[in-house]
Amino acid sequence: MNSYDISLGGKLECSEAMCKSRLCQLVTGGSPDKRHKVLQRGDRLSLGDGACRKVWIILYGMAAICFGLADGRRQILGLETSGHIMCGMNNGGQNGSWIEALTETVLCEMDLASLGSPAYPGGPCRDGQRLVSELFSVIHQRLEACSAHLVTLGRLDSTERVTLFLADMANRLGRPVGQSTYLELPMTREDIADYLGLNTETISRIFSRLKKNRLVQFPSRSAITIPDLKALERRLPVDIPDFSSTSHVSSFLTAVSAPSFSRDGAHS
Amino acid sequence: MNSYDISLGGKLECSEAMCKSRLCQLVTGGSPDKRHKVLQRGDRLSLGDGACRKVWIILYGMAAICFGLADGRRQILGLETSGHIMCGMNNGGQNGSWIEALTETVLCEMDLASLGSPAYPGGPCRDGQRLVSELFSVIHQRLEACSAHLVTLGRLDSTERVTLFLADMANRLGRPVGQSTYLELPMTREDIADYLGLNTETISRIFSRLKKNRLVQFPSRSAITIPDLKALERRLPVDIPDFSSTSHVSSFLTAVSAPSFSRDGAHS
DNA sequence: CGGATTATTGAGCCAATTCAACATCGGTGG
DNA sequence: CCACCGATGTTGAATTGGCTCAATAATCCG
Hints:
The structure is a homodimer.
Chain A: H1 3-7, H2 23-28, E1 36-39, E2 44-46, E3 54-60, E4 63-68, E5 74-80, E6 85-87, E7 97-101, E8 105-111, H3 126-155, H4 158-173, E9 175-177, E10 180-184, H5 189-196, H6 200-212, E11 223-226, H7 229-234, H8 247-267
Antiparallel strand pairs in A: 1-8, 2-7, 3-6, 3-8, 4-5, 4-7, 9-10, 10-11
Helix pairs in contact in A: 3-8, 5-6
Chain A binds a DNA duplex through residues 157-158, 188-190, 198-205, 207-208, 220-221.
């Protein structure tokens, strides 16, 4: 029935693996439904309706959160993959603010205004709190990513930015091939430039320089091989964000949500 | 007893006016207590303990959220005033990440790990959800500010950045004097530079140029008069964030928190 | 008043941009 | 199959915006 069931080989139950935060499960009760949206590469979803009324969790694929200035300049605020959240913006209405799919992307859309309704499983109080805890955690992650990116744009030079970008993408999308790391970037040089606050030619020049220094190879236009990822990372004055771990999130969840769970029964 | 009761003339009950989000009230039950911290100008509070375990709401004053790179470079992530939130960071541990008071500042510290305890008024379920809703809202505001700043650093040139900064500060701190707007900046040129991803000399040069063009006046080192704030804002390709309104927050609160309030009685 | 800190201004330099030419890739139709 | 075309990527030359370094000025504070 759903087109993505076919194109992705039925991988899209709202499993824990797909939706790490389990927010999607909380909202849908564990089964995929109309809240799931499929975007094809290039498809856009507006964010700037004047308030944060909806959030979207990425279940599959990769999408860019974009912001457009009045004169056409564009800044990509984040490059988001499975488990990441994106939410509505209050500003950015007139100049535009949107999500843009870089690959085929499946989202779970959540309307905040309806989250309080009795339609959600487990009762309005108990799961409501859990829901909003999860929402907090995942948005806190987004804030951390945004803060880290702010430092990148404010204080790293172009070579450092590109190096950090490659290391970050390698950690997110790469797979080991012997000693090397192989990845495919589902975006153009212009997308990379708009993410890093640079321009296309600069990206190209730095890629060429890194290639000449044998830090990266480009088997094709979109494919990248990094012979020694650790060596690349050592050139940076910042830590690479770790996307594999969500332990810091659960620590807060345990703190706020779980105790209230256990006492919930005693309370009512 | 508390030094700030004296120095600020007893203005510091945890009133709605001081803590717009009312998070502080939810946590403290409405009365100021040990959770309140007073920082003097220059005082620091570490943020990078490896996880988000605490959040701080500013009740009074102005503070900078800072991030330090291994080589000494510094980026100010945000300049926060009353009602704004700041929270722990997972990354930034080794390189440093901290809050720095720019004026005398009063904070309400909230330990996330203890928010679930029965010590909080109203019961663990009902107010727990409200608490976490408020927390979500205020952190969403922080994310919006961070996103807007990302665009500033990524796509605005130095003149635009400084102009935006002045307009933003004027909206936050300024008071009208006839047609003009008067404000005092509680920070050095270096702080401004670290906020805008520029250096001290550049800030100084742009201030001088704006002065020559009669867009601003500098009655003293820290005081600024803007003859026509609207004219200044018209030079920008972005909207000035509106800090006076919190309506977008309450819309979400109403959506998630209030319905569960009303059904809470029926449920238990 | 004196010393330290902070701010301003100038000269020269370098990194990143702009503009332009050319190369490569992917897709389409003859 | 290959020729063609548009889109994307690369490279070079010239320009410029912002930085570094350095000297001077203003301000703060004991």
